[in-house]
Amino acid sequence: MKKSLLIILSLFIFGFSFAKESSSQNFLLEENPSDTSITNFYEQQKLKLYPNPVKDYLFIEYDVLFVKDAKLKIYNSIGAVIYSKNLEDKQDKLKLSVSDYNNGLYFCSLQIDGKLLNTKKILINHR
User: Fold this and answer.
1) What residue spans of the chain are helical by DSSP H?
2) Nearest partner of 64 among 84, 45, 77, judged by Cα
3) pLDDT tens, 50-59?
4) Which candidate, 29, 41, 84, places its Cα nearest to that of 60?
5) Does residue 55 contact residue 25 with C-beta atoms inside 8 Å?
6) Does residue 37 form part of some domain?
7) Domain tally for the chain?
């Protein structure tokens, strides 16, 4: 019984690793390394948070180009949205008071045209 269970487990692991390797190779073959326009577009969108860790005020600088809809969201450590702002200006600096937030780890994300573009960690420590 143990021997047959060991054989089945070995086949499962071998099959899983083979499938993972095959799918990653197909992905690499489908990429077009000469098409960098999408990569360059995303690299042009900037999000800067400081100071980190933050005690009283979080400063958020952003610079987004060529977009219809841009949103900034801050999530707590369990994924609940605690702050959300539609970005109407293409470039701005925001000052956000964090005095009402508990100490801990938060995440700030920049979403452009419905796609998550950039996420950064924020550590809030009021001490």
Assistant:
1) 2-30, 37-44
2) 45
3) 999 999 999 9
4) 84
5) no
6) no
7) 2
